[in-house]
Amino acid sequence: MSDSFTPGPLDRDATVYVAGHRGLVGSAIWRRLAAEGFTRLVGATSSELDLKDRDKVFAFLAEHKPRYVVLAAAKVGGIMANNTYPVDFLSENLQIQLNVMDAALEQRVQRLLFLGSSCIYPKLAPQPIPEDSLLTGHLEPTNDAYAIAKIAGILQVQAVRRQYDLPWISAMPTNLYGPGDNFSPQGSHVLPALIRRYDEAVRDGATEVTNWGTGSPRREFLHVDDMAHACLHLLEHYDGPEQVNVGTGKDSTIKEIAETIAGVVGFEGTTNWDTSKPDGTPQKLLDVSKLAKAGWTARIGLEEGLRSTVEWYRAHQGELREK
Ligand code: NDP
User: Fold this and answer.
1) How far apart are CA 306 and CA 274, in angstroms?
2) Which of 130, 220, 229, 269 is the most buried (most CB within 10 A)?
């Protein structure tokens, strides 16, 4: 533990900067903080403050002087986008996190939470993936650029702890879903893509849906409201240089997930699996024992979480992100 950390509630009247507060994760964290009584939340959209603009980021933090920062801004995308635009994923994420963390250091921000992703772990890491498998093997090549940027972020948090004794921390969420997700054909991850596909089939009266692969890979999904809850819990209770995995500790096959989504949206037709398309890695599950030891476990079950996500998706037609 760093000398400057005492476990316990954060000051509800302190200024909290949530970078990326309109995104899936950032908006959930913002909602959670507001519900928990934080009165001074600050955020800026990417058009108001491009976090790649170092001078503007420094000026923003100097103006608001946040005591706490949650770094949930990033260039995020599915496998296709990551594989096609590796330069953008590497360069933009390095710039965003470097600028925010350097400016936060200049302001001596007391608590900063950096968010990475489970793709930081080696492609052949043991399952469930423990935190200490970081940097023990080769990355999945389709998103290695993004992963390297995120690994650099973890290292930056550790370096700040070492050199400045500030109790900054990192959390690595599993696949997330929920209200505010990206449902666009280009930018979506697997779960929102499935929701969109099944919901469109219901609206179009289609009798068949075809998904990629065999449906047998196992994946873990955490509702973003649970994620936000875990983030606040870690900020109040966890202090250590090692990143903390955030997940449910349970996985399902893509086929099971697709069936649950079909049931939730009311699709009664047939699902085909296009086995000529790649499956990706057979299993990806985080070891969440460190998080459990820190006192937090997930609460929102998959079906319950999918219901609220589908409701949100249907209520926000016309306002959804387009890429
Ligand atoms: P989103 O795409 O939903 O949100 C990203 C946010 O980052 C947006 O609010 C966007 O702002 C902001 N942003 C991006 N580029 C810039 C920029 N140049 N300047 C200012 N703001 C910028 O992503 P998520 O919420 O899903 O992801 C947030 C974090 O959580 C990431 O670090 C990601 O790695 C992590 N994560 C997400 C997972 C998931 O399944 N979604 C899984 C694991 C980790 P604006 O809307 O104003 O353009």
Assistant:
1) 24
2) 220
Q: How far is the CA of 268 from the centre of ligand 1 (A)?
A: 34
78 CA to centre of own chain: 12
Beta strands in the chain (DSSP E): 15-19, 40-42, 68-71, 111-115, 169-173, 175-177, 208-212, 218-219, 221-223, 244-246, 252-253, 270-274, 283-284
CA dist., res. 121 & res. 119, Å (int): 5
Per the annotation, the verdict on 68 as an active-site residue is: no
19 Cα–ligand 1 center, Å = 9
Q: What is the pLDDT along the chain (323 residues), one digit of tens a residue?
A: 788 899 999 999 999 999 999 999 999 999 999 999 999 999 999 999 999 999 999 999 999 999 999 999 999 887 778 888 999 999 999 999 999 999 999 999 999 999 999 999 999 999 999 999 999 999 999 889 999 999 999 999 999 999 999 999 999 999 999 998 989 877 678 899 999 999 999 999 999 999 999 999 999 999 999 999 999 999 999 999 999 999 999 999 999 999 999 999 999 999 999 999 888 788 899 999 999 999 999 999 999 999 999 999 999 998 887 77
Q: Is the CB of 75 under 6 A from ligand 1?
A: yes
Nearest ligand 1 atom to alpha carbon 51: 19
Using CA atoms, how far apart are residues 311 and 54, in angstroms rounded to an integer? 39
Closest by CA position to 171, among listed 74, 77, 248, 242: 242
Domains of the chain as residue ranges with CATH: 15-177+222-249+284-300 (3.40.50.720)
- pTM of the predicted model over 0.85: yes
- Reported as half-sphere exposure (CB side, CA atoms, 13 A), residue 33 has a value of 29
Q: At what angle do helices 86-106 and 54-64 cross, to 10 degrees?
A: 40
